[in-house]
Each structure stands twice: as C-alpha cells, then as structure tokens.
Amino acid sequence: MPPPVEEMSDNESGDIPFNDDAGSNGEQQSESEEEGEDVYVVETITEHQFNDDGTLMLLVKWKGYDKPEDHTWEPEAGLKEGANDVLAAYYKKLGGRPKKTAAKPGPKAGPGRKRKSIGDSKSTTPAPAAEPKKRRKSEPKQTETPEENNHSPNWVPKGKNWEDKVSNVDTIIRDPEDGGLYAFLLWTNGKRSRVSIESCYERCPLTMLTFYEQHLVFKDG
User: Fold this and answer.
1) Of 15, 24, 61, 105, whose CB count within 10 A is highest?
2) Residue 97's domain spans which residues?
3) Does residue 159 lie in a domain region?
4) Does the reported pTM lie above 0.90?
5) How far apart, in whole angstroms, are the C-alpha atoms of residue 122 and residue 112?
6) Side-chain half-sphere of 106: how many Cα atoms within 13 Å?
7) The domain spanning residue 165 has which CATH number?
8) Where is the composition biased (Basic and acidic residues) (predicted)?
9) What is the DSSP-derived secondary structure letter of residue 101?
10) In contact, 44 and 124? CB cutoff 8 Å
C-alpha cells in the first residue's frame, strides 16, 4: 500500500497562481487553428482569361504548390477579398485591368479556397517559346489545257446562220444510246462542240456539203 498522505495547512500548501492570459491565449490558438485549416496563400497570378459570360478568371499559383497542375483558375471577385494587393500588382504589370477582346471558352473555377496575400511578387511563370512556323510549299495551280478549255460540248453561237462561224467539220458520229448522228464542229473562236446533224443541215448546210465532198469517193462517169 502507498503511504498515507500527510495533511498540509493552507500556508504550507501554497496558492496556485491564476493566469490572466489564459483566455486570450486560448482565443489566439483557436484563431490560428481556424486559419491553418483549408487556408491557401496566393503567391502570384500568372495568366487571365474571360468566360463566356464575361467573368474575368485568373490563374493562381499557391504558396507551397509549385507543380503546374496545382495551379487553379479563380474568379476576380474572389481574389479581391483576400489577395487584392497581388491582384493589383498583376494589373500594374499588364498596364491596367484586362478587357475582354474576343469570345472564347474560359477556364473553370478552381475549388473554393480562402485567399491570403503574401505581398507583391515579381516572379512569374515564363511563357512557352513560340514554335517557328513551318514553310509550306505552294502547290502548282492546276490549269486547263487549251484543248480542255476550248472543248464546250453544248456551246453553239447565236443566230440562225452558222456558215461564217464554223471553221470546219471535224467528224460525224452515231450516238450508241439514241442512234442519232452528231457532228463535231470547230468554230472560228477555237471552241469545239457536238451538234445534232439536223441542226447542222439547217444552219450550216454549205459547210456540211463541203465536208461530204471532201470525204466521198466519186466515180468517173
């Protein structure tokens, strides 16, 4: 058994001092714990973009998070509450608050975090170097040959008389589909077209007669 405890008088026992600062220290410790929980410090702002609705979004690098994937896009209004001096320094570097110039999909806002400024920071993420533009070889423009350009199968001159517009008759063929005869005429403007034999007899009969005389074989009588 442990020895009995001796009784002590009030004078021998002594008074336990009262700490007046206990309450204030407890409050400070509570505030420190609350601040340390889910509190992220804005180190610098590296980029900005506009959402479709015109909201200005800024890419934030948080203190202690150096990996690019840890950077988050935050709305301007949220940074004004806890990191206004960093925001002002970024605007000063740009020469003023950026203005929306063209509509393009903006970034999504990062997770909600309490912001705390650590002062003006001049360190910024270097922009990636622009890749040199590759020279493209121009492809030669395809042009029609004079033969293809002048071949207009359905072209015929205006007017009822073609005698002075036909250069000569190239040939006469029979169409295997409809069985009709067609003449290929060479015009004085260099074009070549296919015309039914009936239209040739009606509008340039002398030219057709000349063609037949050149190709028919006559017997001496």
Assistant:
1) 61
2) 38-117
3) yes
4) no
5) 25
6) 24
7) 2.40.50.40
8) 139-150
9) -
10) yes
